Structures are given as structure tokens and as C-alpha cells.
Amino acid sequence: MNENILGIIAGVFTSISMMPQLIKVIREKDVSNISLGMLLILITGLALWVVYGVLKTEWPIILTNALAVTLNTILLIFYFKFK
Question: Where are the transmembrane segments (predicted)?
């Protein structure tokens, strides 16, 4: 298997790991169990991975972490909306 394909598959699974939490928050409109600090640190780390991927021209890193930044930013928006 091509290493880029493996990287993309692994990154997609890691990136969508927050989807169940996001769906739960949207359905229940409850963010009381979400840590704002964790979310901010995670988004910062993921954004830094995107920058790193751009600097290294590594598309699996760029794409999957950009997806994760997007999903977690949506969760952050709902955090403030439902808080």
C-alpha cells in the first residue's frame, strides 16, 4: 500500500474521531462535559500540524489535520452557542 494512502486513511480515522462527540452535542444541545481548554489546545495543535504539513509539502498531514481543525472548530462554535 502506498504510504500516502496509508497516511490519509490513518489521518481520516483520527480526524473523524470527534464526530460522535459533535453529533451528541448537536442532538442534546449540551456542552457541560466538554473541556474548553482541551478543545483550544487540540485545535492549536492540529493547526500547527497543518502548518508543518504545508512546510513539508505532505498532503496527508495537511488534508487530515485541516479536516480535524474544521470539525473541532465547529464543536467550539457549538460550545459557545450552547454554553
Answer: 6-23, 35-55, 61-80
Rounded distance between C-alpha atoms, residue 12 and residue 18, angstroms: 11
Determine the Cα–Cα distance for residues 64 and 15; give it in Å rounded to an integer.
6
| Residue that is written with C-alpha cell 513539508 in the block | 56
Q: How many residues does the chain have?
A: 83
18-71 pLDDT, tens digit per residue, is: 999 999 999 999 999 999 999 999 999 999 999 999 999 998 999 999 999 999
Residue type, 34: I
Gap between the Cα atoms of 20 and 7, Å rounded: 22
